[in-house]
Automatic annotation (TrEMBL):
One of its GO terms (cellular component) is efflux pump complex. This is Efflux RND transporter periplasmic adaptor subunit. PROSITE patterns: PROKAR_LIPOPROTEIN. Residues 204-275 form the CusB-like beta-barrel domain. Keywords: Coiled coil, Signal. Residues 1-24 form the signal peptide. Residues 101-128 form a coiled coil. Residues 72-194 form the CzcB-like barrel-sandwich hybrid domain. Belongs to the membrane fusion protein (MFP) (TC 8.A.1) family. Residues 284-342 form the Multidrug resistance protein MdtA-like C-terminal permuted SH3 domain.
Length: 361
């Protein structure tokens, strides 16, 4: 059998080309890696933290009294006397104003005389009926007339009593709307009185249905007033409306405020932070991790298990706290989210995770 021998120059050529082929292969691999690095997006990540806390409700309104009385006369007439001035302290039951009683007293006198006549007629007919000189019908008629006269006297006396104004609560006269000598029509407001004790000041505010559902009576509140910019006042929710206002669709809430040693007045502007008693656990991430936000819905990017690509996840945002986003759902089991570079990413994009110093992890 013959041995096949390659010419010596072919062997030398093969040996010379082998290193060149290896180098070329290495260059190709390096070029591919470099091209991949050029197309990767440099990103940074931040850890996902968990925190149990409450979501405060922020709202605003006006300071007012929880007991307010807009006093008016039941009957019309000339105002004879007003005994108080605006800003004056009053006690419950104190006489505040009266009408000129000339006409009203005459009506009471007329009603009393009519009643007395009806009573005499009744007694006379009763005697006649006992002697069979009057019929049963006549007795019934005078009995009815006597009862009608008695009711008319009651009405006249009632109107006489309500021809004067008395304080329905201890407090302060906030407004005097009419003066002595003016003609007051029935029901026309004359005086505005409000209770002004330590426990009588409230802020009435309107909240949305979502905020209303978070709150309950007894929730604590922090109240700030423009009149006292350096002070904060304690408050507590005392009333929750059970129906929305038909005009603005908001639910009215009443927050009782303790003024301490400060002087309150109706109409002061107040801002309230109401803290619900119920708390929840949230995933906390930096705001810059959120992309494509719409209401409470948003997306975040997380690094895939291969460490070189990213996944896009939907999340539900509960609320924001400074530069942090409180995530209600969507980050279960997630350790880190993409922050820097998130706005440049798409689903499955190649990434290079960088340190704070700018070097690759």
């Amino acid at each position: 059998m013959k041995n096949l021998r390659l010419p010596s120059y072919l062997v030398l050529l093969a040996l010379g080309l082998a290193p060149m082929s290896f180098v070329a292969c290495q260059k190709a691999k390096s070029t591919t890696a470099a091209q991949k690095d050029d197309t990767s997006v440099a990103i940074q990540t931040a850890p996902v933290k968990e925190e149990t806390r409450t979501e405060s409700v922020f709202t605003s309104g006006l300071i007012s009294s929880d007991v307010e009385a807009r006093l008016s006369f039941k009957t019309g007439g000339i105002i004879d006397k007003i005994y108080v001035k605006e800003g004056q302290k009053v006690s419950q039951g104190q006489l505040l104003a009266t009408l000129n009683l000339t006409e009203i007293n005459a009506q009471v006198l007329q009603a009393r005389q009519s009643y007395e006549k009806a009573e005499r007629d009744l007694q006379r007919v009763k005697g006649l009926y006992a002697d069979t000189a009057a019929t049963l019908e006549q007795l019934q008629n005078v009995t009815t007339a006597q009862e009608v006269a008695r009711q008319n006297l009651t009405i006249a006396q009632f109107n006489q009593n309500y021809s004067q104004l008395r304080a329905t609560t201890s407090g302060t006269v906030l407004k005097k709307l009419m003066n002595e000598g003016e003609l007051a029509s029935p029901g026309a407001q004359v005086l505005y009185v409000a209770a002004t004790g330590q426990q009588n000041w409230v802020v009435r505010v309107g909240v949305s249905d979502k905020d209303w559902a978070k709150l309950s009576i007894g929730d604590k509140a922090k109240v700030a007033l423009d009149a006292y910019p350096n002070d904060s006042f304690e408050g507590i929710v005392t009333e929750l409306a059970q129906a929305a206002d038909p005009q603005n669709k908001l639910y009215e809430i009443e927050v009782q405020v303790k003024p301490g040693n400060k002087r309150f007045a109706p109409g002061l502007f107040a801002r309230a932070e109401i803290v619900p008693n119920e708390s929840h656990t949230y995933s906390i991430i930096p705001i810059e991790a959120l992309v494509e936000g719409n209401g409470q819905q948003a997306f975040v990017y997380v690094v895939s298990s291969d460490k070189h690509t990213v996944k896009k996840l939907p999340v539900r945002v509960a609320f924001f706290d400074n530069q942090r986003a409180m995530i209600a759902s969507g980050l279960e089991g997630i350790k880190e989210v993409v922050t820097a570079g998130a706005s440049f990413l798409t689903e499955g994009a190649d990434v290079a995770v960088m340190n704070d110093s700018g070097t690759s992890k």
